[in-house]
Design brief:
By secondary structure, this protein is α/β, with parallel strands linked by helices. It is built from 10 helices and 21 strands. It has a 10-stranded mixed beta sheet, with helices on both faces. Strands 11, 12, 15, 18 and 21 form a 5-stranded antiparallel beta sheet that branches. It has a 4-stranded antiparallel beta sheet with strand order 13-20-16-17, with no helix packed on it. A hairpin with a 5-residue loop joins strand 16 and strand 17. Helix 3 packs across helix 4 and helix 6 packs antiparallel against helix 7. The longest helix has 19 residues. The protein is globular. The N terminus is likely disordered.
């Protein structure tokens, strides 16, 4: 149970956002260090010796970045060793080991990368760990750091500067995307559980995903650059949005995706309320280079992160680097190019030549009811006859009115299973400009791959905050004036689902 949730509340406690105590949030993020890096890197065969050097590398602005450089022993291949840059997540460092498996990104390099014949550079991002400087959330200076570290690595003896790849998850993945868009000449990249459009992750339709924003802020506030706090406050308040858009645009890649010509293996979570599936789907559609997509049970909350999944994902992700850094014609860049793991994890993967076939389910929630600022309107449909597995962005169109102003609205789609468990399928919100005359409001909800068991009942909850659906649902927390009243009319939900569900 979390956040004072009473026993027996029967709400899936994983459907939470990052607003818990810092240690709790970091436990979830640091689990990714082992889980996601392992997926990218092969388990070693015969262990090989290597040279490890801890050092500081000074950037052009004088800030010193703490790094670890690895080189395999023995004779390098003709042209030099292929190399991998490894980027950690927010609030971490290259030596962080207080996670669920006690393994740092340096440990991963030593066990799974260098012995496979790769030179590796790990580093503490600016404002993290032992590095100097301040955090500006993958801003221009941090991307310049990536460029300068790339150049440093490319200039090392016995390293092939034409065969340098990058792996990074979450914060590190965002940096890789932006660096690639700005011309850092990676030979292959693997951005994992990260964003391509930061604005749509933090405040889609101009309404802050409070839990995500506060989680990010809590992780960096001690070493944040001065310009970050005003942006955070503006996002939460929904003000100065032009400045917020400019800030996030400098840290996003979506408008540049069509220009990227780097072989890209995308790994994204089925259920990730921070950086949802749409962040990867847009990239997969727009990139004009060899590309591959894996969608699995890892990521930020509420991803379950099953350990058994790693064993099958490791070889696939490793082959991507082997193909484009070592030049091995292993077929990893040929169809099927999309893989989808079921939930719960069973050990079976489903492969497709492109995105899996989908169909659209149209659901109508009829009625009319008025509620106050702390209330909600919840409508539940009859039991489903068969299993549904969502894939993509649900779109809600709902008629709303308010006689005295209701500045924003939040909608949560949940499923009540036959056993009485409530699973959050998706959620979304939007700023509104309502009058006493009903108008239709469109809400694009979080893109997920959610398994909805047969005989479940879908429920739509409309309110000012996501906590109205369940106290543990901390995604949207901003309330409305206590005097505000909201009239909720009929609603239509367009729900994309897999043509053939894969989960059981």
């Amino acid at each position: 149970m979390e956040n004072g949730q009473p026993p027996g509340a029967r709400v899936e406690n994983a459907d939470r956002s990052w607003i818990h105590a810092r240690d709790c949030r970091l436990t979830s993020v640091r689990r990714l260090v082992f889980a996601l890096a392992i997926m990218t890197l092969a388990a070693p065969g015969t262990a090989s010796a290597f040279t490890k050097t801890d050092r500081t590398i000074q950037m052009t602005d004088g800030v010193r970045i703490a790094a670890t450089y690895y080189v395999p022993d023995g004779n390098p291949p003709i042209g030099g060793w292929p190399a991998v840059m490894m980027l950690h997540g927010l609030g971490e460092s290259r030596t962080s080991s207080n996670n669920a498996v006690g393994m740092s990104i340096n440990d991963l390099a030593e066990l799974y990368v260098v012995p496979q014949g790769y030179a590796v550079l790990t580093f503490d991002a600016r404002g993290h760990g032992d590095s100097e400087g301040l955090v500006s959330v993958d801003g221009p200076r941090e991307i310049q750091d990536v460029r300068e570290l790339f150049n440093w690595l490319a200039g090392q003896q016995n390293v092939d500067g034409q065969k340098i790849g990058a792996f990074g998850y979450s914060y590190g993945g965002g940096a890789i995307w932006r660096a690639a868009a700005e011309g850092v000449p990676f030979a292959a990249i693997e951005p994992t559980t990260c964003w391509t459009d930061l604005y749509s992750a933090l405040g889609p339709q101009d309404l802050a995903r409070t839990g995500v924003v506060l989680g990010i802020w809590q992780s960096i506030m001690a070493r944040a650059a001065p310009e970050i706090d005003p942006i955070v406050q503006d996002v939460l308040a929904g003000q100065n949005l032009a400045a917020v858009r400019a800030f996030t645009a400098q840290r996003s890649t979506r408008s540049f995706l069509g220009q990227i010509r780097i072989p890209t293996f995308l790994l994204q979570g089925r259920r990730d309320f921070a950086f949802d599936l749409e962040q990867a789907l847009v990239a997969y559609a727009r990139i004009r280079a060899p590309k591959r997509l894996y969608v699995g049970d890892f990521g930020h909350a509420p991803s379950p992160l099953p350990r058994g999944e790693l064993v099958q994902v490791m070889p696939t992700a490793r082959l991507w680097f082997d193909r484009f850094l070592k030049g091995q014609p292993n077929g990893i860049d040929r169809p099927p190019l999309v893989e989808l793991a079921p939930d719960p994890w069973t050990g079976q993967l489903f492969a497709y030549p492109g995105l899996p076939a989908r169909r659209t389910v149209k659901l109508v929630f009829r009625g009319r009811r008025t509620t106050g600022s702390s209330g909600k309107v919840a409508r539940t449909r009859p039991r489903l006859k068969r299993r549904l597995e969502t894939f993509g962005t649900p779109v809600l169109r709902i008629y709303l009115a308010s006689p005295n102003g209701w500045p924003h609205v939040v909608a949560v789609l949940s499923a009540i299973t036959p056993r009485g468990k409530e699973i959050v399928v998706s959620a979304g919100g939007a700023r509104t400009a309502l009058t006493s005359r009903a108008r239709r409001v469109t809400i694009r909800m979080i893109s997920q791959v959610t398994n909805v068991p047969p005989r479940s009942r879908l429920r739509l909850t409309v309110a000012a905050t996501s906590t109205a659906q369940a106290q543990a649902n901390l995604l949207y927390l901003t309330g409305v004036p206590s005097s505000a009243r909201l009239s909720v009319g009929s609603a239509t939900l367009t729900l994309p689902v897999l043509a053939r569900p894969i989960s059981r």
